Amino acid sequence: MIIAVANQKGGVGKTTTAQAMTAGLAAQKYRVLGIDLDPQGNFSAACGAVNYNVPTVYELMKQTVDIKEAIQHMNGGYDVVPANIMLAGAEQELSQTGKEHRLKEAVSAVVGDYDFIVIDTPPSLGVLTVNAFTCATDILIPTTAGIFATAGISQLNETVTSVQKYCNPGVKIRGILFTRFNPRANISRQIRELAEQLSEYISAPIYQTYIRSGVVVEEAQANKADIFDYAGKSTVAQDYRAFIEEFLKGVDE
Ligand SMILES: Nc1ncnc2c1ncn2[C@@H]1O[C@H](COP(=O)(O)OP(=O)(O)OP(=O)(O)O)[C@@H](O)[C@H]1O
Ligand SMILES: [Mg+2]
Question: How many domains does the chain have?
Answer without folding.
Answer: 1
